[in-house]
């Protein structure tokens, strides 16, 4: 025991850290053990609850679906037009049928079949006395329908010819494989047949049970059975799987365990159908057992690794600290050479203090000019500075002026040029500093932004010395005008250092007077300038319309005239740049609105940013125009016919409130251009086309229905009956009432 205490002192850092690590490990391990035990005990109960919920949800969905099918087929069974077709066939055969009424019934059937929620493959009205069916695609003879289009071994043609004498309106038959259409594609369909006594026709609905089951299927690996009240299987999710007979159900139990499988039962209250879900128990138990073993192995491995890691970490932390404590009593303490930053800091602290003090002093001397520049920058930008710290930084007093040098490089930057431009800006700043300080020793020059340099010159006036100094800088800069240009703005003389921001703002406003020329400009005074105009409102609209049409020549003429006008008005470089950027943005937005991939077009924004003269702007804008117009023309050529789309849209939405602006928005066009395009291609305007379609639809309703005049108007899009009557008479020469009297189809 004493040997153990000497090796593991109870109050040592190593033992305490090891104990704390182990406590945390055992706490986490206890929780994991409890979680595994709880999970194993409750997993079977959770499986039963989960699957009961699944089958109840499935039953609820199918019962609602059953009621929906029943209501839909009941409405169709007693539809007026369905009966009319039978009476017409009784009196005159197929030739005596009113095909307008056939179309109306077909529309109802198509609506039912097209709804994905109903899961109907087809709905047929079977007139057995006349041996034909009315379905979604028209009238088909019964022998052709069940021998060519819907073929099933379980339901041959002779099956459909027989008549049922069962009770109840809706009769469900077991699902079967049908070969459909000329392609003979196979689907599993469940027939629904209406049963109305003394009715000469019946409704046959074919339900796509595979589609329905995929919408509401339950747990993976389970099987689903749907049985009628007599126990006959109507639908089976896995008909190819061989299974044992179902155990007898007492009608009360929610589930039972039989021969290694769970059986979940539920009976529908509306349909009387029995729903069965079968889940193999053996596979589930194997998965759970395998998961438990894996969890145990992982737990044991984690526990062992945690204990070993605790030992290693505790020893790694304790050993260097023990050496440092031992070295305190020695003449020279051994310096710690390890990877723990805190221990290195402790061992090097005393020696580092002196070195740190010397380094701080050298750093302060080196960074004082930089801090002074920052102080000036804060004054210009109105930054809040600590008052006590700012007193230590030198800032000149007295009258001063601000000189701003705005650099403009002539080449579009790349990765290599970016670094060169940064170094070049630094060299230019050094050159300005040298030149200005030679004449004004108290001046200070700093870089405000990436391409902007600023000098604070302490002087009482704009002297000849200053003009000579700036002229010398101009001569130097002009030698490199092919690489960069410099615009120099000189503010007025200000008396108080609190006016730094005002002086800077004044100099920046003077820079806006720079002209689009390729030389260094020095701007001394504010000049009055008139507003200039690039595009007038009419020209801008004309440019937009021609650009949408891909008319390059017209757009080119407008751009050239605008640039010529700006030159005559002596537009500044800033005004010229603003115009060029606005035209470029307009072209790019137009291309985007026409759904053209703008990534395929070159990026002209940077090229414009590095342009100076009107000729350079003209070349870039015309080049961008050529690319944009070419892309628009290609888009127009590959696009489908606009007129065809307009007619199709009006035919499909004539009953809605349609406007030219709404249609133009869908086509990404301006209403003016679309109106002119329709007039050019059809000879009539948008309103005439819409009214023509509406009046044609109104004639059909007046001829074939006894619908009130006001409702006819509402059906075709006229919300005001007076407007409808006026337009109808304008087009046909008759009022709707007179037209119905002379054209009513009985």
What does it look like?
The protein is α+β, with helices and mostly antiparallel strands. The chain has four domains: 57-241 and 250-280, no CATH class; 396-523, Reverse transcriptase/Diguanylate cyclase domain (Alpha-Beta Plaits, 2-Layer Sandwich); 537-638; 642-743, Orthogonal Bundle (Arc Repressor Mutant, subunit A). The chain contains 25 helices and 18 strands. Strands 1, 2, 3, 4, 5, 6, 7 and 8 form an eight-stranded antiparallel sheet that branches. Strand 12 (261-267) and strand 13 (274-280) form a beta hairpin. Helix 2 runs antiparallel to helix 8 (281-327), helix 3 packs across helix 4 and helix 22 crosses helix 25. The longest helix is centred in the first third of the chain and has 65 residues, at 13-77. It is flat. The N and C termini lie far apart (116 Å). The mean pLDDT is 79. The chain crosses the membrane at residues 12-34, 293-314. Residues 658-712 form the HTH cro/C1-type domain.
Structure described in brief:
The chain is α+β, with helices and mostly antiparallel strands and 746 residues long.
SSE layout:
Blueprint lengths: L1 H6 L5 H65 L2 H13 L6 H16 L5 E8 L4 E4 L2 E4 H8 E2 L5 H5 L8 E3 L3 E5 L4 E10 L6 E8 H8 L6 E5 L5 E4 L18 E4 L2 E7 L6 E7 H47 L13 H41 L5 H5 L9 E9 L5 H25 L4 E6 L2 E6 L6 H15 L5 E7 L9 H12 L9 E3 L13 H12 L3 H17 L4 H21 L11 H5 L4 H25 L3 H12 L6 H7 L4 H12 L3 H19 L4 H7 L5 H12 L3 H8 L3
Parallel strand pairs: 17-18
Antiparallel strand pairs: 1-2, 1-8, 2-3, 4-6, 5-7, 6-7, 7-8, 9-10, 9-13, 11-12, 12-13, 14-16, 14-17, 15-16
């Amino acid at each position: 025991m004493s040997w153990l205490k000497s090796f593991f002192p109870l109050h040592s850092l190593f033992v305490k850290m090891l104990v704390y690590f182990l406590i945390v490990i055992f706490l986490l391990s206890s929780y994991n053990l409890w979680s595994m035990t709880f999970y194993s005990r409750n997993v079977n109960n959770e499986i039963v609850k989960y699957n009961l919920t699944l089958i109840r949800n499935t039953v609820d969905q199918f019962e609602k679906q059953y009621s929906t099918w029943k209501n839909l087929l009941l409405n169709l069974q007693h539809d007026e037009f369905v009966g009319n077709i039978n009476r017409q066939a009784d009196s005159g055969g197929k030739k005596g049928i009113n095909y307008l009424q056939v179309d109306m019934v077909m529309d109802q059937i198509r609506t039912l079949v097209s709804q994905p929620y109903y899961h109907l493959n087809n709905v047929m009205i079977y007139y057995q006395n006349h041996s034909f069916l009315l379905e979604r695609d028209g009238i088909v003879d019964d022998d052709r329908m069940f021998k060519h289009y819907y073929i099933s071994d379980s339901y041959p043609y002779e099956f459909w010819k027989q008549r049922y004498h069962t009770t109840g309106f809706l009769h469900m038959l077991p699902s079967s494989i049908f070969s459909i259409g000329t392609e003979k594609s196979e689907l599993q369909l469940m027939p629904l047949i209406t049963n109305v006594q003394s009715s000469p026709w019946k409704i046959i609905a074919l339900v796509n049970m595979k589609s329905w089951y995929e919408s509401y299927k339950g747990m993976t690996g389970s099987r689903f059975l749907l049985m009628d009240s007599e126990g006959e299987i109507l639908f089976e999710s896995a008909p190819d799987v061989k299974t044992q007979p179902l155990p007898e159900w007492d009608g009360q139990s929610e589930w039972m365990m039989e021969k290694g499988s769970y059986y979940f039962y539920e009976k529908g209250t509306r349909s009387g159908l029995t729903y069965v879900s079968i889940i193999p128990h053996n596979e589930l138990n194997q998965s759970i057992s395998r998961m438990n073993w894996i969890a145990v192995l992982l737990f044991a491995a984690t526990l062992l690794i945690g204990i070993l890691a605790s030992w290693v970490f505790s020893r790694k932390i304790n050993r260097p600290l023990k050496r440092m404590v031992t070295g305190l009593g020695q003449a020279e303490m051994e310096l710690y050479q390890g990877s723990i930053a805190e221990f290195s800091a402790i061992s090097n602290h005393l020696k580092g203090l002196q070195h740190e003090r010397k380094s701080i002093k050298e750093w302060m001397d080196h960074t004082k000019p930089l801090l002074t520049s920052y102080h000036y920058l804060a004054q210009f930008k109105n930054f809040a500075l600590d008052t006590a710290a700012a007193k230590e930084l030198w800032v000149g007093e007295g009258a001063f002026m601000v000189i701003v040098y705005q650099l403009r490089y002539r080449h579009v930057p790349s990765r290599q040029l970016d670094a060169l431009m940064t170094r070049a800006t630094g060299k230019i700043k050094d050159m300005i500093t040298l030149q200005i300080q030679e004449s004004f020793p108290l001046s200070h020059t700093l870089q405000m932004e990436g391409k902007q340099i600023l000098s604070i010159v302490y002087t009482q006036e704009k002297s000849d010395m200053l003009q000579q100094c700036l002229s010398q800088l101009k001569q130097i800069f002009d030698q490199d005008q092919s690489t960069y240009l410099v615009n120099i703005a000189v503010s007025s003389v200000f008396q108080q250092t609190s006016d730094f921001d005002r002086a800077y703002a004044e100099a920046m406003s003077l820079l806006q007077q720079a002209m689009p020329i390729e030389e260094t400009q020095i701007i001394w005074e504010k000049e009055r300038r008139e507003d200039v105009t690039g595009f007038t409102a009419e020209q801008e609209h004309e440019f937009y319309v021609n650009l949408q049409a891909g008319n390059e020549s017209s757009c080119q003429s407008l751009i050239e005239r605008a640039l010529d006008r700006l030159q005559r008005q002596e537009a500044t470089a800033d005004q010229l740049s603003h115009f060029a950027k606005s035209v470029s943005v307009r072209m790019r937005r137009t291309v985007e609105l026409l759904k053209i991939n703008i990534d395929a077009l070159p990026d002209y924004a940077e090229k414009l940013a590095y342009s100076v003269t009107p000729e350079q702007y003209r070349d870039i804008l015309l080049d961008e125009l050529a690319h944009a117009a070419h892309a628009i023309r290609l888009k127009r050529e590959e696009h489908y016919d606009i007129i065809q789309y307009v007619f199709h849209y009006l035919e499909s939405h004539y009953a809605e409130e349609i406007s030219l602006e709404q249609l133009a928005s869908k086509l990404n066009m301006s209403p003016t251009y679309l109106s002119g395009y329709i007039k050019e291609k059809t000879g009539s305007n948008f309103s005439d086309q819409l009214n023509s379609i509406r009046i044609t639809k109104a004639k059909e309703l007046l001829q074939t229905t006894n619908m009130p005049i006001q409702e006819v108007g509402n059906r075709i899009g006229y919300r005001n009956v007076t407007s409808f009557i006026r337009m109808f008479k304008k087009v046909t020469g008759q009022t709707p009432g007179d037209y119905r009297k002379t054209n009513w189809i009985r």
